[in-house]
Structure formats: C-alpha cells, structure tokens
Amino acid sequence: QNMLEELLIHKPDDPIQYMINHLKQNNDDAPRICVLGPPASGKTTVAMWLCKHLDAVRISRETLLFKEILALTKEAKAYKERKQEIPNALWANLIQERLSNVDCMKQGWILEGFPENQEQAWMLQSSGIIPRHVVVLYAADTVLIERNSGKRLDPFTEEVYHTTFGWPSDPLVQQRLVKPEDLSEQKMSNKLLEYHRNFPAVFQIYQKVLKSINADQPSMDVLSQVLTYVQTRHRSAAPFTPRILFCGPPGSGKSLQAALIAQKYGVVNICCGQLLKEAVADKTKLGELAKPYIDNGYPVPDNLVMKILAERLNALDCMTNGWVLYGFPRDIEQGEELQKSHIIPN
C-alpha cells in the first residue's frame, strides 16, 4: 500500500526500477510520526522520548537549522539572521531533503511542530511526505501560558528545555540556558491565537491518522498514551481474508469462540477432528487412508492430517471468505508442517 501511494505521488518514468529501489531502501514498518500542538504543550519532550523508545530520527526546526548540514541550511539560516520568516516552501524542501537520508528511511522519523498550517501540510503531501500517525497535544490556554514561563533555550543549538518537564542532564548545557525573548504573556497569547486559527485546517487534512491527547496530565501518562497510539496499525481499505487459528488447552473455549467468530464474520469454521471424521464418512481417498487409525483409536499421522487440512483450506469458500481453525496444530512439529504447506494464519 505504501509503495502504491509513493508511485501515485511521484509518477516515476521507470516504475519497475522505482519499486525495486523502494524495496531496497524503505522500511515500511519504520515510524513516520508528526507531533503537533500549541506552544508549551510538550511536543519536544514527547518527540525526544519517542525517538529514544522507537530508535527513530527526530526532526524539528531547530535540528534542521543547527544540527544538520543540508544543501538548503545556509539559505534558511540567512533568513533567520535577517530576522525574516523562513518561507513555507523552503521548510518543506529542507524536510524533504532530510527525510531522504538513509537513516530516516531505515529507522523512521518523528517530525516535531510541523506542519503548523494548511499550506505547510499541503506542501508536505505534494512532496510525498505522508505521516502514518499524527499526535496532537492539547491543554487549556491558561495551563499553556503558565507552563511557558518555565521554558529555557540553549543559544548554541536553539533546543528548548523546561524547568519542570525537560531539564538537560549535561551541566554545561544547564549553565548556558537562557530565557527565550518571547516569554511575555502577551506574545504567548498571540501565538495561541494564531495556533487556534490555523489548526482546524491541519486537523481536516490528517483526521484519519490523527489522535488528540490531553497534555495536562502526568508526563508518563501522556507518553504511554502516545506510544500506544503510534504502535497501532490503521485499518486498510484493501480486501482482507481472515485466517484465524485458535490454540489453547482442552476446555478453554476454542470451539465456542470459533463458532461465534464464524457466525459473526461469515468465515468458514473448521475443527480438525471433525474434518477427519467427515473425510472418513465421505469415503474420500484420504478419508479411506485415515479410517484404520480412527477406528482403532490411534492418532492419524501428521502428513495425512496435513493433506486433508490443506485440501479443505484451499477450497473456494475458505479462499474467498477466510477461515477459523482449531484442534491443529497441537505441537511444534505440526506447526512447522502447517508453515511448510504455506498455510499461514494472519
């Protein structure tokens, strides 16, 4: 699905080579996360913690300007030095350049505080930068204004720290921290006003992959909710055929659960023991081979069970509607037999 998205966005001249390169470079399971929210909501704390936990690359405006040596860094810094706003298009190009590096492709990325408005979100999309999860932190404006007073800035790296929520462990960094210039309540109120004006359009674009999380609670609670969300997989619209396997000791309720699931989702319910009895009763070739074992109370050999099972699971109704199986495998050898026959539950 990811590869198809990329093909549609980039429309390469040589699609086959593009797909080969995609498979070589991209790790489709790598995180692609945006952490958004108003000023002082804790975006940096959450992004840094996620990077540590998921071994992903954190990307923020500060890291792009002060920690990276990219082709466009110089141009962006020139705007900063002239105290001019860096254009949205330049930010989008900087991010695209950084995300095309091997570490981001292999390990995944956490993009912090971007996009802030609809134009930035559209620019990311048109560059093929599509997050899988968007986390939005929120809290009451009064809480955010109060929190803002604890912000501290590292003038060397432009990294933001907080006296309560994110104090650096390095004593040298601690010594050089300063209060940001824009700490006044009035400036903070203006920033919040702008955020509330711009955010609904961003929400509209990412609503299918977005989760809002209350930032006004203990930080460990916030982090655990964020982690739970970013580790979920979104439902795909692609056709899906369930292949369900129930394991458990006798009396644990396998047959009842299988029957309920088969009834609810219209999948084929298969009990291995019942299947063997039906094969014998129907006098099929394989049933005839299994009959002496069943009549004498001996276990039917695994290879024979496997043939009967494979024949049933490859029937049209199972292939179309999916299946739920219980009573097999009962041990590692049977499990391996199942895999060798390419019967893989999903």
UniProtKB/TrEMBL annotation:
An annotated GO BP: nucleobase-containing compound metabolic process
The keyword Isomerase is assigned to this record: no
GO molecular function: ATP binding; nucleobase-containing compound kinase activity
Top-rank taxon, per record: Eukaryota
Keyword Kinase in record: yes
SUPFAM superfamilies tied to this protein: P-loop containing nucleoside triphosphate hydrolases
Keyword set, alphabetical order: Kinase, Nucleotide-binding, Transferase
Pfam families listed in its UniProt record: ADK
Family listed: Belongs to the adenylate kinase family.
PANTHER family associated with the record: NUCLEOTIDE KINASE (PTHR23359)
Protein name: KAD8 kinase
Gene: Ak8
